[in-house]
C-alpha cells in the first residue's frame, strides 16, 4: 500500500535475544536467513520475521552478504535482533481492546 | 378470588402512596411512583405477549419491579418508624457523648459474574428429544437498591452462565450486604408434552395429578420471587412463565478484592422444580469497592511544610488530602491542572500523626507532624497550619481518614478500578450463546496470532486501516518452494490475516539445514520461480533469493 522500499518506515517490533550455540569451534545461531536489499523479494517463500536491526546495526538496507556477515561475527556470542512480523499488529490491537 | 386480590392490591398501592406523601420524602416517593408505573406497563405487556421469549422478558421486568416496590416499601416503613419514635420519645442519647464517627460511603461494583454448571448425562436428557432451555438472570440487592442483569438463555451446551453486566451501587457503607439471587424459568411451556413421544405422554397424563400438584406447590412457594407474598403483589398472568429462585448468596466487605474470586452459592431449588438447573454451587465474580475517601479530596488548605531533615526551609504549599496521600502543590490551581505536587506524604495505616508540641519551642504554633516508617528509617514531615481552627480541621480530617481506612480495610490499600457500566442494550434476538470454551479449538503448535485472532473476532474487530508497515508483508507469494535447500526456523507461511485455520509448517518438506561453516552462501533458486524476469533484460533487477545458515 504505502510502503516504498528504500524509504524510512515506522513499524511495531519485537526484541529477540539469541545466544549462539557452539558447534565444533564455531558459534552458530541455528537458523538461516534469506533476502537482502539485493535480492528479489517475490521469490521469498515465507513472509514472517523481517529483521530490522542486529546488535545495533541497521539491517533495513543491507545486501544478503552484509546481513550474513553481521550475524556471524566470531567475537559476538549474543545476537540482539529487532524483528517485525504481522502478528505483532494483532497483538497491539488486542491490547488496545482490553 | 381474583377480584379480592385486585382490591387488596389497589388498597396496598394507595397505602404506599399515602405513606410516601406523609413522609414528604420526595426522592423515595418519586422512585416508588416510577416503579408502580413500570409495573403497570409490564403487566399490560405481559398480557399482550404472544411469544414465549417476550413473555419471559416481561415477566422478568415485572419481578424486578415487584422487588423494588417491596424494598422501597420496607424503607418507607423504617423511615416512618424512625420519624415517629423521634417525635414521641426523648432520646436518651441527647445528653450523652457526641455522635459516633461514621465511615465514608463508597461505590461497590460487581462484574464478570460467572456461574459454572454441572451437566450429567442422565436419563433425563436422553428421554427428552429436544434441547431443554432455561432463561436465567441475577437480581442484586444492596440496601434498598435493586438491580438486575440481562437475561441469558441456557442449555446443556453451556459450561457456565456468564453475565456481561457491570452492576454498580453508589451509596454503600463498609458494612454493606450485597444479596445475589439467581432466577430461572423454562423457555418451553411448563408441563408441555408436545415434544414427548405418545407412550410417554399417556403415562405422564395419567399421573398428572401428583406431579402437577407438586409443581403447582413449587410454583406457589416461589411466586414472584424474593419473598414477596402473593397477596400483596400478585402476578396477574397465571398462565405466563414463572421464575423460580434457584440460588442465592450474600457478599460483604470480606469478599471485596481487585481480582476474581469464587464464592459459594446456597442452592434454593431441588430437582422437582420445573426450572431446576444443575448448578455447580459457586459463583465467580470481581467485587470491587471504591470508598469516597480514596477518590475524593477530604481536606485542603494552605500549609507550611518543613521538608524532612532540613531545619529552616519552610515552604508554603497548598495541601490536598486525598486517598492515602497528602499532596502538597505549589499553588492551589496545580491540583486541578494535573501538575506534579512539590511533595507527597504517604498516609496509611502505619502512619503516626501528632499535633503541636514539636515546634512550639521554635515559635511556630499550630503544627502537626506526620511520621512514616520506611524500612529502618523513620521519616517525619512537619506541617504548620494557619490557625488553631485550621489545625483542628486538619486533625479531624486525618482522624476521619484513619477511621475510614480501618473500616474499609483492603479497599484503602490501593484504588480499585471501577468501570462505569455502559447503559445496557435492549435485549437482542435471543440466539443460543456459546461459551468461549467451544469457540477455542487450539492445536498444540499454535502461534500467539491464533489466539489473538479468536479473541479479536469475539470482541468485534475494530475497523482500522492497517498501518503502513504491514504492506511489507503483502507482496509475497503463498506457495513454498520445494527446492529450497534450507529452511527458516519460525515458519508458518501466512501472507495476510487468515480466518483461523491450522497453520502449515514447511520445515517438514524441506531438507534439514546444513550448519557447516561456509564462507559463501547456497546456490540461488532456479530462475523459473520468477516469471517477472523471464525473457526480460532488466539490468538492475535482482534475480535471486539467497538463503544462508548463520
TrEMBL record, chain B:
**Domain REM-1 as annotated: residue spans:** 10-85
Q: Which UniProt keywords apply?
A: Coiled coil
Q: Which residues form the PH domain?
A: 296-403
Origin, by domain of life? Answer: Eukaryota
Q: Give the UniProt record's GO annotations in the biological process aspect.
A: actomyosin contractile ring assembly; mitotic cytokinesis; septin ring organization; signal transduction
Keyword Coiled coil among UniProt keywords? yes
Recorded hits in SMART domains, A to Z, give: Hr1 (SM00742), PH (SM00233)
Record-linked CDD domains: PH_rhotekin2
User: What Gene Ontology molecular-function terms does this entry list?
Assistant: GTPase inhibitor activity
What's in the GO CC field? Answer: actomyosin contractile ring
Report residue spans for region: Disordered.
83-103, 505-550
**PANTHER family, per the entry:** ANILLIN/RHOTEKIN RTKN (PTHR21538), RHOTEKIN (PTHR21538:SF19)
This protein is called: Rhotekin
Native source organism of the sequence? Macaca nemestrina
Gene name on record?
Answer: RTKN
